[in-house]
Amino acid sequence: MKLTSVSEVRAIMERHGLHFNKGYGQNFLINEAVPKRIAETCGASAEDGILEIGPGIGTLTRELLARYRKVVAVEIDATLLPALRETTADFDQFTLIHADILKVDLPALMAEHFAGMKVTVCANLPYYITTPILMGLLESGCSFDNITVMIQKEVALRLCAKPGEADYGAVTASVARYGRVSRLFTVSAGSFLPAPKVDSAVIRIALDPVRRYTVTDEALMTRVIRGAFAQRRKTLVNSLASEFGELNKERLTEAVTSCGFSADVRGEKLGIPEFAALTDAIAAHISPKLF
Predict the structure, then answer these.
(1) Strand pairing class (119-124; 146-152)
(2) N or C: fewer beta carbons within 10 Å in the chain?
């Protein structure tokens, strides 16, 4: 079975009465080298488990099943389930879950299907919900070994950006709280059927087993990062003011300068250690019951 063959894809779709669902951002891989490379470079070992999101008709799924101990795939589109059962029928270590990954109880899923196993997330993510899925995985509290996903190239550039670079933003800092992001390779639009309007890239988030920073309040740090990028053209103090209405600019300036930053620094200049320090400085100026 060659799921990267256009004729094979069309035959499976016709057999199961399938159509490309734009609402779910469905684009199936037709470049044979790509799913193989993703599966080989996802960072997992042969005895590890794999959580896949949005398996489609199983193109990447089959490559993962050929290499790893167990694969659990979560698919939201019920119309794809019969095709997936057909394309994975020759593997006995596969579990298919019909659900919306954004509504799945991930800790419960991990406990039920991956007890005692190291788990890597490996997936071709829909462009339109890339950030909610990534943040859902990162904030779930699950001890994933790493997260390797194919996403829109422009989003990959943002996630890999460094402080001070044009692409660096709130999502960059939010993801960096949990691990280090690296871009593995680029995938051209022509590698998909139907071809999207933009190229893709495969990234890996190597999750930190222990946080690289300490902070008094994680929820407050989320507000600090959100506020720092709320108005990018303004200074950090002015941008934070839009988030922290309970603090005047004088107190915000005090918090910023107490960390050793200039009063006119911009949010995009700060990395995770700096945001952690700023969070603690702001915590000292705000009543705990306000956040």
Answers:
(1) parallel
(2) N
